[in-house]
Amino acid sequence: MSWFQRYMRSSIGAKQVMAVTGLGMVLFALIHMTGHLQMFGGRDMYNGYAHFLQHLEVKWVARLGLIAIVVIHIFTAISLVMKNRAARPVAYAMYKPVASTPMSRYMAMTGLVILAFIIYHLLHFTIGTVQPQYFHMLDDKGRYDAYSMFVRGFQNVGIFASYAVAVFMLCMHLGHGASSWIQSLGWRHPKYGTDKLGPILGIVLFLGYIAPPTAVLIGMIKLPGA
């Protein structure tokens, strides 16, 4: 067995892989959030941003890379859960958590919910099967009208509510995960307040992601001419 195989099968190696892939997902989430905040700049700005992404030469490289990160993260998480269960084949007679938080105990469950949400989100805004009547409409410059599709999507209270719940779980998952990977990568230092980075990150992501859909729901962001 090579050193790499031994490393990957060890708990330390698996946790560090979780940390690196988690960091990759956090960086993507921050970039994606910044893009969605351009909804406040109006239709031309947001459609210009969407057009830029659609015509990136490395678009599919980035997509495949992100899919690989998510898949590795999920399989590594499953592996860690199985190892933990194997280490204690007999359940506690009475389980009383002392140091763990509710979020840490339900990371696997929230991860599955987030995966389901990501699939739904792709079906809605990337593949166009949720609201096909608004998919790939064109604006006055001949670009895909992603702005109007966004607005029409989040004018639906059901879509907004499901998005809000899923984004909350996503942001708390990434926030708690950030606290864990900071420790796994050896970056934890009480002097510099790195323990606070995870919760702050979760709050920033949630506010950044929920702001544009909320603005649509309350009528602050509207369809052109409305």
Written description of the protein model:
With 226 residues, this protein is mainly alpha-helical. The protein has one domain (3-89, 102-217): Fumarate reductase/succinate dehydrogenase, transmembrane subunit (3 helical TM bundles of succinate and fumarate reductases, Up-down Bundle), CATH 1.20.1300.10. It is built from nine helices and no strands. 20% of the residues are buried. The mean pLDDT is 82.
Total count of strands: 0
Helix content: 55-70%
The third-level CATH topology is 3 helical TM bundles of succinate and fumarate reductases
Number of H/I helices: 9
Shape: elongated
Question: Which superfamily, in CATH terms, is the homologous superfamily?
Answer: Fumarate reductase/succinate dehydrogenase, transmembrane subunit
Largest sheet: none
Distance between the termini: 65 Å
Strand content: under 5%
Q: How many whole angstroms does the radius of gyration measure?
A: 20 Å
User: Could you report the average pLDDT, rounded to the nearest whole number?
Assistant: 82
Element pattern in H and E? HHHHHHHHH
Low-confidence stretches: none
Class from secondary-structure proportions: mainly alpha
User: For the record, what CATH class applies?
Assistant: Mainly Alpha
Characteristic terms for this protein:
single chain, 226 residues, mainly alpha, 3 helical TM bundles of succinate and fumarate reductases, 9 helices, elongated
Task: Give a quick summary of the entry.
The protein is mostly helical and 226 residues long. It has helices at residues 3-9, 11-36, 43-54, 59-87, 102-105, 107-127, 146-154, 157-184, 197-217. Helix 1 crosses helix 2 and helix 2 (11-36) packs across helix 4 (59-87).
